[in-house]
Amino acid sequence: MSKTKPNYDAARIEASRQAAWEQRGDYEAPSPEEGQARVYVKPSSPFTSGNLHMGHVRDYSIGDAYARFRRARGDAVLLGFGFDAFGLPAELAAIERQEPPAEWVAQCGERMLGQMKRLGFSFDYDRVFYSSDESQYRWSQWLFLTLLEAGLIYSEDATVDWCDTCQTTLASIQVEDGRCWRCHNEVRLIRRPTWFLRITPYLEENDRNTERLRNWDDLSLSTQRYILGRSDGVELDLEGSGGSLTVFSPHRRALALARFVLLSPRHPDVEAWTESAGVREELERMRSGGWERSARDARSVPIVDTGATIAGPGGAELPVLVSPLVDARYGPTAAFGIPAVDEADAELGRRMDRVGAEQGGEEAAAAPVPGAREAKRYRANDFSISRQRSWGTPIPIVHCESCGAVPVAAEDLPVVLPRDIVATGEGNPLAERPDFVDVACPRCGAPAKRETDTLDCHFDALWLWVPAAVPPADRAEQMFTHPDLRQWLPAERLVAGGDSGGFVFDQRIVTKALRDIGPFAFLEEGEPFAGCLFHEMVIADGRKMSKHLGNVVNPDELVAQYGADTVRLAVLYAAGPAKTLNWSDGALRFANRFLRNLWTYSQDRFAQLEEATHDPAAAADTEHLRDRLRKWCENGLQRITEDVEQLQMHKAIRNVTRLFERVQDFEKRVLQRRGQLDRADAEAQVAALVLLIEALGPFAPHTSEELLLASGQLDSSGLPAPWPRSAPIPVAAGG
Ligand SMILES: [Zn+2]
Ligand SMILES: [Zn+2]
Fold it and tell me: Running DSSP on this structure, what letter comes out for residue 186?
């Protein structure tokens, strides 16, 4: 009578379920029906590094569990995915292997997608994109031109690291102790024209909106506030030899103690205060001196004394100094130096003879200064978006001797990056390709040169949350104006690592810009993500995983040994998203033991149900126990549902395991009382098991589905199973 009950064979179960999912087309984003909730879940877009690491597994396990939960509840779900495929990591890997980065990226992507499928992540794989595909980067170019036209992109000289031997600029991670990573020669700083993204017009709105964001967890909100770097205080208009100056301080009650005024080298009026030849030279030296590296340390940050003074709030003449320390604290503004109340100012004061050491009078000055207005400053500032690298989106600009920098016409996009380019680490391979560089000026037709800088991959990332919402077949022709965007945006949830705050901040800025320019007018708040969950990283032995330390955990090995469901369950269960996950085999063993126990126990009970007989008197005697089991199920389900809604998967899993203990406890009590289960008891027990197996679905989807089929309660036409409402255990007659 009893069926064969195979042992828990994860490899077999997972292969069979994954084949079924693929056949059913479960993960294709549906066309939402009238009244159906539309849920776009956006996990992070990884670099094409070649291997998923445990941080990715954590990210996608959370996003996938949430997507499966929302699908099971009947919502239209898009779980989108794409690679951040341009940029330095791929270029460096390609240099090491002496192959075109395009080939390296394709191999890596294929391999990583294979790993993701093996883990059972339910992305809409047909919608996967690479930012380095022509059909993608043409839209990065479109975005560049659109923001340029709106005045949100501009060109300005900036300082970059340069290696004379390699004839190339270097990214900061390629500079080790002031030396080139490749040839170990000393690096010097040069000034060259650089493209910048202007974000300052939207800082205030990002600030205001941050207070109104719902469904953003504390970690994601705190990163937004940190990047914004808001300081509240007062400002005062002062007059001096360089004209009038509005000066800020967060120390509103100590203005009268100001001993100097510190001006940012990026302050729009800085030229007027640095007119004498010697001072201007010093300022230029500061600007080309790589001060970004030490701009936060008051002991070493460069200072230029302008020699000028300005009449301070206490009546004294205050020396006017220039230092990038202002930028690092308050952005490109002017700030009071108040050594009596500010440690950094005190340090600067000690370094400047002219400031003087006198620092008394705190009490006398602890009163508001007339004329001081409430004010705030933001540290976040415009940033450079161009790099002298070959593996990136070509900037759609042509340099003409007579017309200057001319934008490429939108209908001439994409400006195609030669696919066969091989980066060597020397020079800029793009600049050495006449077939790329030499072009007619779009305006006057004269011979001209293409811009050979490419866009930093951070610029591509500004809109990497968009492509998955557009059907692949349409992407070459239509992107930012595609009608589907209205149904999927804003994304219901972004799930990303705790270090993604900068990306998210800038994505929020660009959304506002595109709202004002037009295409995203339907996003009235200018927010790309309605909800956001940031999770901390995965470490091992209390340290960051690294090849160097030999503590890297390889997800493939874990999947081969334990199965995908065990790995997913362990990663989710081991720590809440706000906590760093210190990886240990303990969580794996726990998850694996739980799945094995549930597997065997459930199949035994499914089989026993077939043999159970009914006796009304016996059933009546255990009615109160069934009633209690029903309440446990209801409470458990309610808790699990709330936990998953808040993406607190570790809590949800704990509640699933607790419910399993209670199902076992129910059986124990019935056996103690009657020696065997009546059919009514067995039915109630199986109903409870089915409920908990359904609730396990988002976390261990393979095991869950296979057990549901084994339960005999539904056949494959009932899959994927809906989220349970309650266990069908009859309510006791008496109450
Ligand atoms: Zn070098
Ligand atoms: Zn021209």
Answer: B
